Amino acid sequence: MAVFRDAHPIVYVEDVNASLGFYRDLLGFTETYRFDDFVSLQLGTSAISVVQVTGGQDGSHGLPIRPRAGHQFELCVYTDDVDAAIDELRDRGVPVLVEPADQPWGERMAYVADPDGHPVMICR
Fold first, then answer.
1. Fewer beta carbons within 10 angstroms: which end of the chain, N or C?
2. Where does the sequence pass through the membrane (predicted)?
């Protein structure tokens, strides 16, 4: 049986530079690999990749890629101070979707939107 060891999401985006401005410059991800408009990023032990595509484009799998066809992706990023993080992101022009609030399961969380409108949960 095959043994799988690592996985990370690939996020289809409309503007790779805008996404880097969000994930790398605002959230602190480190760029670990780049090939054309495909960029891999790491935060702690977590990784994502962003790739710029346009409507009507097919992926390596042969299926159509439509970044604006809906938000089928959500990222959760942990921080020590949700309120301070949201204030900083708001000051940098990031849309806040849900203000910080304590949750019944013990986390404090809020939501912002990345440049393509994907919801990003900021939680502690």
1. N
2. none
Tell me the pTM: 0.81
In a domain, 67, yes or no: yes
Q: Are strands 119-123 and 108-113 parallel, antiparallel or unpaired?
A: antiparallel
Name which of 5, 63, 74, 8 is nearest 39 in CA terms: 8
Task: Please tell me which residue, 8 or 60, carries the higher pLDDT value.
Answer: 8
Residue 30: strand, helix, or coil: strand
Q: Tell me the CA distances in angstroms from 101 to 46, 74, 79, 106, 107, one per residue in order.
A: 24, 18, 14, 10, 8
CATH number, residue 60: 3.10.180.10
**What is the pairing mode between strands 10-13 and 46-52?**
parallel
Q: Which helix (H) or strand (E) holds 42?
A: strand 38-43
